[in-house]
Amino acid sequence: MNTSGFKIPLLAGIMIATVPTLAAASMAEPAIPAGWKLLSSVQGDLNRDGQADLVRVIEEDNPANHLKNDGLGQSVLNINPRRLQVFLQQNGAYQPVLNTDRFLPSENNADSHCLADPLQEGGEVAVKNGLLHIQLHYWLSCGSWYVTHNAYTFRYQDGRFRLIGWDSSSFHRASGERSEYSHNYLTGKRKAVTGLNEFEPNARPKTRWTRLSGPQVWYLDALEPNQLSVE
């Protein structure tokens, strides 16, 4: 998949602190639930105590969620749900602090057969600078020329993961038109850059700063990606 030139804006105004060297985790990882499989796992300090915490993505392994597709796209659609798990390293063991099936999309979509896996095809779950980062990349092989990249940043506070920043970029593969939006839920500000074009080096983009409207406090355990809108 070619995403050359597709840029992801930085979160506006969010200060990133330097994280000290982590203490290695030597304890066994929590067992994967029966009927599920591990897709990925990363470690990093999420509560700034100098210890390596654990973030996992697991997927249900249920053959009933493999749907036959006779139309465009893949011949078999995997709609098994995915679960995001976070464990903090405390007192020599991993303590669960997040276990949600709401946020991560499945590999395929029963309503959009041509959509590539948003998590594996350009997306990721990572821990950087003490923050939890989730990127979801939406690219379709048929039905739409648009490519959309969403980057979410969460901070662990008061026992939950609060959304502190959301960047969304949209690119039209035929026209080259591109727009970028950055939402800072700590400052309450929104940056919109429109008029960009991948094929027009002399394009004159416009930047506009506004105050965020609507709810400004979101938590990962109660959030679904389609609850947020750049409009």
Word description of this protein:
There is one protein chain. The protein is mainly beta. Helices cover 0% and strands 44% of the residues. It contains no helices and 13 strands. It has strands at 36-44, 53-60, 66-68, 76-78, 82-90, 93-100, 124-128, 131-139, 146-157, 160-172, 177-184, 189-197, 206-211. The protein has a seven-stranded antiparallel beta sheet, with no helix packed on it. A hairpin with an 8-residue loop joins strand 12 (189-197) and strand 13. Residues 1-21 have low confidence and may be disordered.
Instruction: Compute the number of strand runs.
Output: 13
Roughly what fraction of the amino acids lie in strands? 35-45%
- Strand sequence of the main sheet, in spatial order? 7-8-9-10-11-12-13
Alpha-carbon distance between the two ends: 28 Å
